[in-house]
């Protein structure tokens, strides 16, 4: 048996260490970016144009994440097809945490509204965390003799073609809020779709249409000025901004709770450590007094929680709106 000399032992030991280093190098390469995440600016894709409630909420949270995580979070507006354009971009982006998506109620509606999509929101997007909820309000032109849900139903029953309700487009959450109310109340209602909330509200103010289940931030200024009359709010609880306006549930339809909501998602396959880090930072931001105050100005309620809770909401809402879309016969425009 031959014995190795000390120099040769050192050479073999060094070779062994080099081999081990090569073996564990891929693991180090995978874990290093996670420890320093985010190592570069993060893009937050919003499926709507700048200026709307979705965009405002996205920018609010992006600013706070930038401050907290020491890296810039940049909002990228990719409007089109009721937010499907933006969702498609993120669903097919690398799952490295560099591209995120502002996931909304629209994505759960679109799953049924559109016959064919290039992605599956439940399978291709990973829930990170819910940000906020915003109720809708049933508003009418104040020239109408309607001051309650009961009077709304009576007016609808007495109208040959039913009471008209405007929306920002067929299949929008505004449209389907009305359709859900129509389903539970059996009201005689006629849907009038518009290309956006702004023209719908304009015609409501002018009396060309009679009512609308509008997002609260859009109609609130007109309610406060007296140009529109708020009849009911669609959330389970009253809004602090409209404390005298009853809920639909209070008005005879127990359990009625319809709200728009906004959260952040990442491409499926994003490492759990990145998802958890983002979730922690989102919840931290939502606890800040200035964030709560700004959300309150938008009639929104902060909704901190876990990725699992957000996933449960997405699954439940997808099922809920599938049933409403099918019952209403709504089609993508």
From TrEMBL:
Report the InterPro entries cross-referenced here.
BUG, Bug_dom1
This protein is called: Tripartite-type tricarboxylate transporter receptor subunit TctC
Q: Report the Pfam families cross-referenced here.
A: TctC
Q: Which Gene3D superfamilies match?
A: Bordetella uptake gene, domain 1, Periplasmic binding protein-like II
Transmembrane ranges, per UniProt, are none
Q: Which family does it belong to?
A: Belongs to the UPF0065 (bug) family.
- What keywords is this UniProt entry annotated with? Receptor, Signal
Signal peptide start and end residues: 1-31
- Looking at the record's lineage, which domain of life comes first? Bacteria
